[in-house]
Amino acid sequence: MKNDAASELTFFVLLAKHANFSAAARALDITPPAATKRLAQLEQRLGVRLLNRTTRRVSLTSEGEIYLVHATRILAEIREMDDLVTSSRAAPRGLLRVNATLGFGRTTIAPLISAFAQRYPEVEIQLQLTDSPVDLVQEGFDLGIRFGELPDTRLSARRIMSNRRFLCASPAYLQQHGEPQTLADLAQHRCIIHRQNDNAYGVWRFTRNRKSEVVKVHGALSSNDGDIVLGWALDGHGILIRSEWDLAKHLETGRLKLVLPAFTLAPADLFVYYPSRQHLAARVRAFIDFLVAGIASHAGSHAGSHTGSRATSRAARRTKRSG
Fold first, then answer.
1. In which domain, by residue range, is 34 found?
2. Integer Cα distance of 192 and 213 in angstroms
3. What's the CATH number where 201 sits?
4. 62 within some domain
5. Using one digit for the tens of pLDDT, what is the confidence trace for 84-105?
């Protein structure tokens, strides 16, 4: 395919994604009139209208939707072709697009990317942080980094770290309100709710002795930000579900205590996932290996699979003895 044809497809995909001439023009570093002229030339060449225009936005025609589907696929194939050709190079290079969650992306992934960029200066890295899962293929990402179940079973994945979840609360809260002895007791407590994606609000699911139990909880505080809800638990506002990655240091210092540790919650294991390909580009392989090693090292000093497990296990034994 000629380079100008690939450029034309890239232009149209960006325009369809932004649904706005000005935004697409900024992404391409051209003027809005130039973007308008470029679309007109494309439509004239094809002999069909691809976009419906208003003063502020554009929308796809039926022909435009067909063109977008094929343009996206062709660009992905071109990118994969380039990756296959260059994957044997010793030094990773080229563009690497990474998606991760907001809090974890800021505190852990961004510093790892900084170190990776120093080691591999020929790799250009774009990091996007979103709490909602994205379509890696449609959005053009090389990989995503997420806790919990994978959003799309069609993707390839590598587990970076196991990460159990527990109920927890501050000693001050438990002293004032008492410690629940059964799951049914949770209905009488103030629970802090972490609102994530499409999860049912205030519905907590547990397993014990291979039996599942669902509890509807209530509380005055909720947020979609994990750091915020953890802070509220530390301030004594109620009972919270949190993973051992976040809890370990607070369990060690005694600022938080496990609640009902005999009941199991679905884990929030950390995965790196990527579009299923027979061959990964050198930069993607290098980054995944770097990520796994970096998380393992970071976990040892923060709250990962070793330190975190020891902390939560000790806390669970203390809670069991005191009960």
1. 3-82
2. 19
3. 3.40.190.290
4. yes
5. 666 555 578 889 999 998 888 9
